[in-house]
Specification:
Sufe protein. Chain: A, 3-stranded antiparallel β-sheet, 46% helix, globular, 15% strand
């Protein structure tokens, strides 16, 4: 069963992290740490005029499962809205904790991590990237609202 968890597809995603690093001038930054294992994701974003992710960078130090989730996220996050990310996060939590189907739409590939549901100790590390991204996007949108109010 553990071999299924660390499939070739999961390991390939973990090894190829899109948008690795940090942005030079982010509008929002988020960071999440999985307390049980220490997996960490720091995410920088900028947003476009519609409030969607325009630029994205991630610094992820996580197990293969956390890296794989970050790999999927990095492939599809540019152009995503806060609603899409929130829905994907909620679907991930439901998939991991209560047998849900998993995300749909642009983040459907996160379903590859469905077998992590059988390993509760790995749930938090699988979620650090999407949670850091939501934090970063919300920070960017809040900063934009403040700037608009000051103008």
């Amino acid at each position: 069963m553990i071999d299924d968890l660390y499939s070739a597809r999961i390991l390939t995603l973990a090894a190829n992290l899109p948008h690795a690093g940090r942005l030079p001038a982010p509008q929002g930054t988020g960071e999440r740490v999985a307390k049980l294992c220490g997996s960490r994701a720091t995410v920088d974003v900028t947003v476009d005029d519609q409030g969607c992710v325009a630029e994205f960078a991630q610094d992820v130090k996580a197990c293969a499962l956390g890296q794989a989730a970050a790999g999927v996220l990095g492939q599809f996050v540019v152009g995503a809205s806060v609603d899409e990310l929130q829905e994907a996060r909620e679907a991930m939590v439901a998939m991991l904790k209560s047998g849900g189907d998993g995300p749909t739409g642009r983040f459907e590939d996160l379903r590859l991590l469905r077998q992590v549901a059988d390993y509760p100790a790995r749930h938090a590390s699988t979620l650090v990237s999407i949670e850091a991204t939501l934090e970063a996007l919300n920070a960017a949108l809040t900063a934009r609202t403040r700037l608009a109010g000051a103008a």
